[in-house]
Structures are given as structure tokens and as C-alpha cells.
Design brief:
Blueprint: E1 2-7, H1 13-49, H2 54-85, E2 92-97, E3 100-105, E4 108-113, E5 119-123, E6 126-131, E7 134-140, H3 146-158, E8 162-163
Helix pairs in contact: 1-2
Length: 165
């Protein structure tokens, strides 16, 4: 297998990459926030129903506020990442073989050996490549031809790396 494609100098591309990587890392904040908010609402309802003092109500209110803020953290970070990364648009490209993933961005280049990849997750228009537990890079499916995308999907599935969302 040998797949090669270019990445245009699109000002939106770095923001899309930041959003894909951020959505993977920050998803748990939404779940934690939802749990905190639900516990806070239930606590407020129960404390008001039994006529418990204001001291205990402030605990439930704090949990509710912390939960809402935690749920809003992910969208805030993603919006900030998109805004900050829009100035980093440079031409680049990918050269993917059976052995490694080589990436080029402007004058910088780097690579990841497939042997070091522990998993690949399907996130929107990207495959997020993990080395260990950390997302290391993304592969933009939408910039590849359909045949190359299917060949790469088959390669990752054969190696047991590809995991659905």
C-alpha cells in the first residue's frame, strides 16, 4: 500500500484538526458535567421538598453550576482552538505506506511507524491516530480519494487498529 495526498493551505483546516483532536480529549467533561448537573438538580429538589436549610442547598447549587460549566468547557475550548489555529494554514501532505505515516507541513515533517500505533478512532472527517493513550495525529479522510480511503481503512482493520466512534 502506498497512499499519497496533499493538504491545501486552507485557513479552516488547522481549526478542523484542533476540533477533531479536542473532541476526543474533552468528551469526558461533557459526561462528568451532565452527571454533576443531574445530581445538583435532584439534590435541590429533594432538599427543598424536605425543607432542609440553606447550607445544604448551596451544595446542590454548586454541583449544578459546576456541571453546567463542565458541559460548556468543551465547546469553549474547541471554539478557542479554531480561532487561535486559523493563522497556521500551510501546504502539507501525507505519504502513508505499510510501514509508516509520514506527514509534511510547510518546512516541517515527521512520521509515525504503524508498529507504534495502538488504535485509530473514526471522528467526523478524520481518523485520529493514537500512540499509547494519546492522540498523536489525524488523517483527513475527506482529502483522500475513495479508493485510497478504503485501502487505508482495510489496512488499519487488518492490523486491528480501527475502532468506531
Amino acid at each position: 500500500m502506498h497512499i499519497r495526498f496533499d493538504v491545501p493551505a486552507d485557513p479552516d483546516y488547522p481549526g478542523r484538526v484542533a476540533a477533531a483532536l479536542g473532541s476526543v480529549r474533552l468528551r469526558r467533561f461533557g459526561y462528568i458535567g451532565a452527571v454533576l448537573a443531574v445530581v445538583g438538580v435532584i439534590g435541590l429538589v429533594v432538599s427543598r421538598g424536605f425543607g432542609w436549610g440553606e447550607r445544604i442547598s448551596s451544595l446542590w447549587t454548586t454541583l449544578l453550576v459546576a456541571g453546567v460549566l463542565s458541559m460548556l468547557y468543551r465547546p469553549w475550548v474547541l471554539a478557542r482552538a479554531r480561532r487561535r489555529s486559523s493563522g497556521y494554514a500551510v501546504e502539507g501532505g501525507y505519504d502513508i505506506t505499510d510501514d509508516n505515516i509520514m506527514m509534511r507541513s510547510g518546512s516541517e515533517s515527521g512520521g509515525i511507524a504503524w508498529d507504534g500505533v495502538t488504535q485509530v478512532k473514526d471522528v467526523r472527517d478524520f481518523w485520529v491516530v493514537y500512540v499509547g493513550r494519546m492522540p498523536a495525529t489525524v488523517i483527513p479522510r475527506w482529502l483522500m480519494s475513495a479508493e485510497d480511503a478504503e485501502a487505508l481503512r482495510a489496512h488499519m482493520a487488518d492490523r486491528g487498529l480501527l475502532q468506531d466512534r
